[in-house]
Automatic annotation (TrEMBL):
Top-rank lineage group of the source organism: Bacteria
Keyword annotations from UniProtKB, A to Z: Membrane, Transmembrane, Transmembrane helix
Record bears the keyword Membrane: yes
The name this protein goes by in its record: DUF3307 domain-containing protein
The organism of origin for this protein: Maribacter orientalis
Membrane-crossing residue ranges in chain numbering: 36-53, 59-77, 89-110, 122-143, 170-190, 210-230
Pfam families: DUF3307 (PF11750)
């Protein structure tokens, strides 16, 4: 597992810290002919060897480097197929992690993967999934009658409220799991401070009540999920 962590760290440094925007743009425009693609790949190999600090593991580092090259090529030539650029980005990163995982645990890949899945905390995973999109949909149903009476703010970012709610519920769930209930109060206070000026300027009682109810329902669902998990 230590080797896997070291290689992931090397990958993060090579892909995010030691890769200037200039390289990324050049690779996107020149693709396989980009000199920075090969500099990037060689840099990764050097980082893998540096973090492994064991010459006997050079084959693993080389295989991962070659795989990294082809994964990057795949992303460069399929980027245009996606409207949302975040999709190929996350697919690319997932493939890199899977490649590293397979290379590190190649001798007992099936057994290790099976053990990994058996040891997953499925109750926690269920709670995490619930507080994301399912909770958002439940809130939408609960607040449907009220939302029709609120004027839409066209200046707001698309789906901003939904994503804020998901993030805050995840935070609440984490704090309950680790037993830090007091931080939840700070989270509510912080959200109230950010919302105060906005609500004060609009002087809209319906909007204020709608946001307050939505916040309480959101936190309530997260707290309920956390209590069910720890019980």
């Amino acid at each position: 597992m230590l080797i896997f962590i070291k290689l992931i760290l090397a990958h993060l440094i090579g892909d995010f810290i030691l890769q200037p925007i200039k390289w990324v743009v050049h690779k996107q425009s020149h693709k396989i002919a980009s000199k920075y693609l090969y500099i990037h790949v060689i840099l990764h190999f050097a980082l893998y060897m540096l973090f492994l600090w064991d010459l006997s593991l050079w084959k693993i580092a080389l295989i991962i480097t070659i795989g990294h090259y082809f994964i990057d090529l795949l992303k460069l030539y399929t980027d245009s197929l996606f409207k949302k650029k975040s999709i190929p980005f996350f697919i690319d990163q997932a493939l890199h992690i899977v490649l590293i995982y397979c290379c590190v645990f190649y001798d007992n890949l099936f057994e290790h993967t099976l053990t990994l899945f058996r040891n997953l905390d499925w109750s926690l995973i269920t709670a995490i999934v619930f507080v994301t999109y399912p909770a958002s949909i439940i809130m939408g149903v609960i607040l449907e009658g009220m939302s029709n009476q609120i004027e839409t703010d066209h200046k707001s970012l698309p789906n901003a409220g939904k994503y804020i709610g998901i993030i805050e519920r995840l935070f609440v769930l984490i704090f309950i799991v680790i037993g830090r209930w007091e931080v939840i109060g700070l989270l509510i206070a912080a959200k109230s401070v950010f919302r105060f000026n906005d609500l004060k300027e609009r002087n809209n009682r319906k909007l204020t009540e709608y946001i307050l109810i939505g916040t309480l329902v959101s936190f309530g669902l997260a707290i309920l999920s956390g209590l069910l998990y720890i019980s």
